[in-house]
Amino acid sequence: xxxxxxxxxxxxxxxxxxVIAASLAFASSRFGKLHARDRILARLKLRxxxxxxxxxxxxxxxxxxxxxxxxxxxxVGIDLWxxxxxxxxxxxxxxxxxxxxxVEDRVSVHDGDMCKLPFGDRSxxxxxxxxxxxxxxxxxxxxxxxxxxxxxLKQGGQVAISDIFSLNLYADELRKSxxxxxxxxxxxxxxxxxxxxxxxxKRSQSA
Length: 207
Ligand SMILES: C[S@@+](CC[C@H](N)C(=O)[O-])C[C@H]1O[C@@H](n2cnc3c(N)ncnc32)[C@H](O)[C@@H]1O
What we know:
alpha/beta; Rossmann fold; 7-stranded mixed sheet; 5 helices; 7 strands; binds S-adenosylmethionine
């Protein structure tokens, strides 16, 4: 009898935890991630004429918001469109979202792997990655993704990478890649799971 009660309590606690986790995930995707997105973009202090790369852009959460801040610039997304990480994940879906938000003329979206970016050295003024790099398997490959971001940044370019884990690894690779002002924020609870953001700047020629 007491064994049955114990099992019932365990199941109740498990069910309750699932409901809490589902509610937090819903609140995050409905409201929290928009707030988080704006805070990340605010860290870049964009003028409005830059070219900004969003690595693992998915449906364009940051890409499209960045484009809105770039009346004279351009937002460039790249993704390999994992269906496991985001449903209906495709270039067409992201371009459709950009059109719905009225920024399709300032957005371009590419197919590709963030560990081998199909862009030349020093192409971008800023780079973003939101909940994307942790999906790359293996610490070595995540470091490759960071090196690729640095390679494609112009001198003086800025980076903001928000993720749920591996932030210390990103910061370490950024420092090794000669980035300066490398800082990791405190954990933000606007998303579920909560995330931290690492920001850094590429040394300008004179620095
Ligand atoms: C959780 S989603 C986040 C999407 C978007 N950044 C956001 O915040 O809504 C992760 C994205 O990273 C992409 N991704 C995963 N590994 C990648 C890789 N090696 N190269 C490019 N994109 C990748 C997935 O296809 C997916 O669209």
